[in-house]
Amino acid sequence: EVQLVESGGGLVQPGGSLRLSCRASGTTFTTYYTYWVRQAPGKGLEWVSRIYTPDDTTYYADSVKGRFTTSRDNAKDTTYLQMNSLEPEDTAVYYCVRDVAFRTNFNEYGRNSGYWGQGTQVTVSS
Predict the structure, then answer these.
(1) Which of 44, 55, 63, 115 has the most CB within a 10 Å radius?
(2) Range 44-73 burial, b when 16+ CB lie within 10 A, else e
């Protein structure tokens, strides 16, 4: 059984930082993407970042480029999202998603494609 265990969300002031973690278990796949996707209140799913295994190539949405960094610890099969210079507009539920397929629009299939973490709430407020 494939599971993604996500943690690290919380309440932070504007300009602050958080690091999200997503540890995977139960998979033998060696080539795949790990995405970070978020959903703000009243809005759809928004792609944030992706990292490709095994070569660790990364790519970011324009809204977070230069502020967020995703990385991998292969020994722990864990993917991270380091979030710096957080803004109120970053407030959302953040999900990690593992999939062998390349995706950009996560509203098309939602959670019916790939493996999803449970989500963690990030709230940026003064």
Answers:
(1) 115
(2) ebbbbbbbebeeeeeebbeebeeebbbebe
**Per-residue tens of pLDDT for the chain, all 126 residues:** 889 999 999 999 999 999 999 999 987 788 999 999 999 999 999 999 999 999 999 999 999 999 999 999 999 999 999 999 999 999 999 999 999 999 989 998 888 989 999 999 999 999
d(Cα 20, Cα 9) in Å, to the nearest integer? 6
Structure tokens at 70: 């995703």
Residues 10, 70 contacting (CB under 8 angstroms): no
Task: Please give the angle made by the CA atoms of 37, 101 and 49, to the nearest 5 degrees.
Answer: 30
Quote the CA–CA distance of 58 and 95 in Å, as a whole number: 17
